[in-house]
C-alpha cells in the first residue's frame, strides 16, 4: 500500500520526499512538487522567528540539524520504491483504501522495510540542496539522527562523511552519541570521546549535555551540574538541560534551587515535550513546602498519564501532608487501579511481541510482570506456553 501511494505521487510530481520524526515512527510526511528542494527550502534555525522556534521546541527540535534530520528519502529513492508498487493508486482503482485494513495487520513493518531500503538518500538530498558540507555539519547531522531520530544507520553513514571531510572535534561527540545508542556501550570510552571533543574546542551546548548525561549515569552529580551550567551558558533556553538540572539539584538536596528551576520549566515548552516534567516539578514544590502547587502539577500530569502508579502514590503523600484525608483515600484507590492497568498493558505488549516473533522480548516483559504482580495468572500461563513450545 505504501509503495502504491508513492507510485501515485510520482506519476504526477517530479520530486517526492519523505520525512519522519523517528525511526519506526508511525507517522510520515510526504512532500511532492515539480521542483527539487533547494537551499532556500531547508530553513536554518537562526532564520526562524521566536514563536516558530518555541513551537518546534515542543517537538524536540532545537537547531538547524534537527530540522534537516527529519529527512528520510529523496526523490531518487522514492522513484525507485514506486517502481516496485503492485499498482498505482487512483480514484478509479482504490488499491490502498481497499487493502489497508488487511495490510496493517498482515505486514505492519511494510512502510519501514521499504524506507530502510536506501539510507544514503539523506546524504544525497542534503549535498544537492546545500552544496559542500563541512566535517562539523556532517557530524552534527549524524548526532541529530541518532539522538533525535533514533536512527543509528543513517547516523553512521553521515559520520563516515564527517571523517572523510577532514575531521572535526564534533566528530568525537557524534561518535559518542552513536556508540551510546548501543546497550553495551563502554561508558569510559564515551567519556573519553566527549573529553576529546570538548578539549579540542567543541563547546557546542549539546556536547556538554551529552557529558552531563553520562556523568549522571555514573553518579557524578557535581560534575554533571557543571556541564549543565556550561551547556546553558551556550544556550540559555535549552529546556532539556534545565530539566536535567532540576533532577540533579533535587538529588543533591538543593531543594530551593530545584524549585526555582521547576517554576521556570512550568512556563516552558518542556511541559509539552516531556509531560513528566510536571511530576518532577511537583516533587520540587513539595520539598519546599508548596503543597498546593505540588498537588496541582501532579494532578495535571496524571490527567495526561493516568497509568502512573508511582505518581499516584506521590499524590497520596501530598494529600496526607496537606491534611486532605478523603482525597488521599481516593488517590490511593486510583494508584491501585493504575498498577493493575499498567500490568494489563505490559501483558498485552508482551503478547504483541510474541505474535511478531520477538519471543525473548516477550519473555522479559512477562517475567517483569510475575515479579511485580505474582498473582497475575495470565502472565504465568503465557510464560509456561513460551517455555513448552518449540524453541522455548
Q: How do the strands and helices of this protein lay out in sequence?
A:
Blueprint: H1 2-10, E1 15-19, E2 29-33, H2 50-57, H3 64-68, E3 71-73, H4 75-82, H5 95-106, H6 110-115, H7 121-130, H8 135-147, H9 152-164, H10 169-180, H11 187-199, H12 205-217, H13 221-234, H14 239-251, H15 255-265, H16 270-273, H17 276-287, H18 291-304, H19 309-321, H20 325-355, H21 359-372, H22 377-388
Helix pairs in contact: 1-4, 8-9, 8-10, 9-10, 10-11, 11-12, 12-13, 13-14, 14-15, 14-17, 15-17, 17-18, 18-19, 19-20, 20-21, 21-22
Please characterize this protein's 3D structure:
This protein has 392 residues and is mostly helical. It is built from 22 helices and three strands. The chain has helices at 2-10, 50-57, 64-68, 75-82, 95-106, 110-115, 121-130, 135-147, 152-164, 169-180, 187-199, 205-217, 221-234, 239-251, 255-265, 270-273, 276-287, 291-304, 309-321, 325-355, 359-372, 377-388; strands at residues 15-19, 29-33, 71-73. It has a three-stranded antiparallel sheet with strand order 2-1-3, with helices on both faces. The chain is globular. 38% of the residues are buried. The mean pLDDT is 90.
Amino acid at each position: 500500500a505504501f509503495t502504491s501511494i508513492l507510485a501515485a505521487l510520482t506519476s504526477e510530481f517530479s520530486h517526492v520526499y519523505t520525512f519522519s520524526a523517528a525511526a519506526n515512527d508511525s507517522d510520515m510526511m510526504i512532500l511532492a512538487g515539480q521542483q527539487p528542494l533547494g537551499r532556500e527550502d531547508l530553513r536554518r534555525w537562526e532564520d526562524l522567528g521566536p514563536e516558530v522556534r518555541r513551537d518546534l521546541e515542543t517537538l524536540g527540535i532545537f537547531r538547524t540539524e534537527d530540522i534537516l534530520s527529519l529527512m528520510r528519502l529523496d526523490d531518487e529513492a522514492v522513484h525507485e520504491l514506486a517502481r516496485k508498487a503492485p499498482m498505482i493508486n487512483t480514484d478509479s482503482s482504490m488499491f490502498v483504501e481497499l487493502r489497508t485494513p488487511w495490510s496493517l495487520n498482515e505486514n505492519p513493518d511494510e512502510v519501514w522495510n521499504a524506507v530502510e531500503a536506501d539510507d544514503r538518500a539523506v546524504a544525497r538530498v542534503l549535498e544537492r540542496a546545500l552544496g559542500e558540507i563541512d566535517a562539523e555539519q556532517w557530524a552534527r547531522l549524524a548526532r541529530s539522527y541518532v539522538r533525535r531520530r533514533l536512527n543509528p544507520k543513517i547516523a553512521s553513514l553521515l559520520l563516515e562523511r564527517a571523517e572523510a571531510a577532514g575531521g572535526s572535534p564534533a566528530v568525537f561527540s557524534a561518535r559518542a552519541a552513536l556508540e551510546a545508542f548501543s546497550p553495551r556501550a563502554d561508558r569510559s570510552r564515551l567519556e573519553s570521546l566527549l573529553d576529546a571533543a570538548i578539549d579540542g574546542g567543541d563547546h557546542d551546548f549539546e556536547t556538554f549535555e551529552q557529558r552531563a548525561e553520562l556523568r549522571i549515569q555514573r553518579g557524578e552529580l557535581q560534575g554533571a551540574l557543571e556541564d549543565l551550567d556550561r551547556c546553558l551558558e551556550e544556550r540559555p533556553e535549552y529546556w532539556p538541560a534545565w530539566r536535567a538540572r532540576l533532577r540533579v539539584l533535587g538529588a543533591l538536596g538543593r531543594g530551593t534551587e530545584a524549585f526555582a528551576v521547576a517554576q521556570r520549566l512550568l512556563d516552558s515548552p518542556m511541559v509539552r515535550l516531556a509531560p513528566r516534567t510536571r511530576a518532577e516539578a511537583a516533587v520540587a514544590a513539595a520539598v519546599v513546602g508548596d503543597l498546593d502547587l505540588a498537588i496541582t502539577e501532579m494532578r495535571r500530569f496524571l490527567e495526561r498519564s493516568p497509568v502512573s502508579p508511582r505518581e499516584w502514590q506521590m499524590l497520596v503523600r501530598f494529600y496526607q501532608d496537606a491534611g486532605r484525608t478523603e482525597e488521599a483515600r481516593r488517590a490511593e484507590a486510583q494508584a491501585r487501579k493504575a498498577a493493575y492497568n499498567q500490568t494489563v498493558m505490559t501483558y498485552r505488549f508482551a503478547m504483541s511481541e510474541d505474535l511478531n516473533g520477538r519471543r525473548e522480548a516477550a519473555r522479559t516483559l512477562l517475567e517483569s510482570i510475575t515479579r511485580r504482580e505474582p498473582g497475575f495468572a495470565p502472565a504465568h500461563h503465557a510464560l509456561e506456553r513460551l517455555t513448552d513450545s518449540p524453541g522455548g
